[in-house]
Design a protein that fits this description.
Elements (H helix, E strand, L loop, with lengths): L3 E2 L8 H21 L20 E4 L7 E6 L11 E5 L16 H4 L3 E2 L5 H12 L4 E3 L1 H4 L8 H4 L3 H7 L2 E4 L18 E2 L1 E8 L10 E8 L6 H4 L9 H4 L5 E6 L2 E6 L3 E3 L18 H4 L4 H16 L10 H16 L3 E2 L2 E2 L3 H5 L1 E3 L26 E3 L2
Parallel strand pairs: 4-6, 4-7, 7-11
Antiparallel strand pairs: 1-8, 2-3, 2-6, 3-5, 9-10, 11-12, 12-13, 14-15, 16-17
Helix pairs in contact: 10-11
Length: 384
């Protein structure tokens, strides 16, 4: 039987299962991707130190109870700050993870991981076991609150995800308290041989024989990504589009995605039919080779899809798509403002509410123009 085996990740086996998976599949995949070997010609390592995060979490050693918040720029350029980055849903369980003006100095001396929600603890464990020292987590590495530096850091987040060695995506967790290193149903699929025993007719000599039918028993294995809670979160559009490599953790197995291919845990050959991936991220849209089509069709298709997502604070919507806009700014050399590109201004201004009848009421406190597409609670369609 041809099959693949998903690791169970039970409480008793999780560390060994995780280490086996990392050594057998994750590390070889990342090494091949970084070397731009087969299937990875489009994957690049950018290494632009100007875009390094302001702060990173130093995860320490495998069994440490403490981690430390590090100011990257104050440590100079000599140190290697290669880092992983986390994409996850905050939910209601993320309050204790926040760095504020009150605790930032204390966290730079070290703080216990036990106060953090399970998703972040899982990311710390995974970072350690993958052999990396640094991890970027928004709640910890951006100073939260009115006196924090969110407005300075938010426009840089696209660069942070682009520059990461790999993104850890908690693709099936709707709340940070759930974690992603959870027990999974052990299943072997996709292919089995079903034997149908055929009796030899009395008039013929010889033993009975079998006809084998190869049957695909796998579920729709892309479904965990298509229905991921991350797809509904506005920030995740850039978080899952800009990194060179992403590890999607789901109960059905680990998906390894890069700019060129997509693997499922223990599958030997990558899928090459990546046109479906626009349903998971905006990689296909951003990768359009024709910049005219990208500006006049691709970008506004992306904005339409982005308008279906949710944000805890609607005022952050332009921040949440800024990293994607920056890619187009660099590629097209077109001026950009509030979700609209100058070269495709007419398309950018032609939009309407797709499925919300009645008059739209604009937030009186909004300082943003009324014509922008990414307005609160809007489902948009655009184009000429």
């Amino acid at each position: 039987m041809k099959s693949r085996q998903v690791k169970a990740f039970t409480a008793e086996s999780i560390r060994q299962d995780l280490m086996d998976l990392i050594e057998r599949q994750v590390k070889p995949w990342m090494e091949t991707c970084q070397e731009q070997g087969a299937y990875h010609q489009n994957c690049t390592n950018k290494k632009n130190t100007a875009d390094l995060p302001t702060r990173l979490v130093d995860v320490g050693q495998i069994d440490d109870d403490m981690v430390k918040l590090v100011d990257v720029k104050s440590n100079g350029d000599a140190e290697d700050f290669t880092y992983l980055i986390l994409s996850y849903c905050w939910g209601n369980g993320n309050a204790n993870s926040s760095t504020t003006e009150k605790n930032v100095a204390r966290r730079s001396q070290g703080f216990t991981i036990s106060v953090l929600p399970k998703t972040i603890r899982d990311a710390i464990l995974l970072t350690r076991m993958m052999g990396f020292r640094y991890l970027w987590v928004d709640a910890i590495c951006i100073i939260q609150g009115p006196s924090g530096d969110f407005h300075a850091e938010a426009p840089k987040m696209g660069d942070y995800y682009s520059e990461s060695a790999c993104c850890i995506a908690a693709s099936s967790s709707a709340d940070s308290s759930e974690g992603f290193l959870i027990e999974r149903a052990v299943a072997k699929y996709p292919m089995t041989h079903t034997g149908i025993r055929i009796a030899t007719p009395p008039s013929q000599d010889g033993p009975p024989y079998c006809i084998y039918q190869e049957v695909d028993n796998s579920p729709y294995i892309k479904k965990p990504l298509l229905e991921s809670p991350l797809k509904k979160r506005g920030w995740c559009w850039q978080e899952l589009s800009l990194p060179s490599r992403i590890l999607h953790w789901t109960p059905q197995g680990l998906f390894l995605e890069c700019s060129s291919s997509l693997f499922l845990e223990d599958a030997k050959i990558p899928w090459q039919d990546l046109e479906w991936i626009e349903d998971v991220t905006s990689r296909v849209i951003l990768g359009m080779p024709d910049t005219t089509i990208l500006l006049f069709e691709g970008w506004y298709r992306l904005v339409t899809l982005f308008s279906h997502t949710r944000l805890t604070y609607e005022k952050d919507r332009l921040y949440a798509i800024h990293g994607l806009a920056s890619v187009l700014i660099r590629r097209t050399k077109s001026e950009y403002s509030n979700g609209v590109f100058q070269r495709s201004l007419a398309q950018g201004l032609l939009w309407y509410h797709g499925s919300r009848p009645g008059k739209y009421t604009r937030d009186e406190n909004s300082h943003l123009p009324s014509w922008r597409q990414s307005t609160s609670e809007m489902i948009t369609r655009s184009g000429l």
